[in-house]
Amino acid sequence: MLRFVVVRGVLMWGICTAVIFTAIQVLQHHEVGTLDVARNIGTFMVGGIFWGATMWWLSGRKKGKS
Q: Any transmembrane segments, and where (predicted)?
C-alpha cells in the first residue's frame, strides 16, 4: 500500500497536477515565483497522499465485491 500511495499518489498525481496547475497560472499571466512553484508542489504532494490512499481503498473494495 505504501509504495502505491508514494508512487501513484505523491509522485505521479501530486507532481503532475502541480506542474499542470503552475502552467495554468503562468498561462493566465499570474506572476509565479520559485516559492509559488514549491508551494504548489508541496500542496499537491500532500493531496497525492490522500488521492493514493483513497484509490487503494476503493480498489480494495472493488476486489472484495467481485
A: 7-28, 40-58
**What would the grid cell of residue 8 be?**
501513484
Helix (H) and strand (E) counts in the chain: 3, 0
The CA-based diameter of the chain, rounded to the nearest angstrom, is 50
What phi and psi, each to the nearest 5 degrees, are found at residue 31?
Answer: -75, 120
Q: Are 22 and 32 in contact (CB under 8 A)?
A: yes
Query: For residues 32 and 37, what is the distance between their CA atoms, to the nearest angstrom?
Result: 7
Give residue limits of the domains in the chain: 1-22+45-56
Query: CA 60 to CA 18: how far, in whole Å?
Result: 27
pLDDT of residue 65: 65
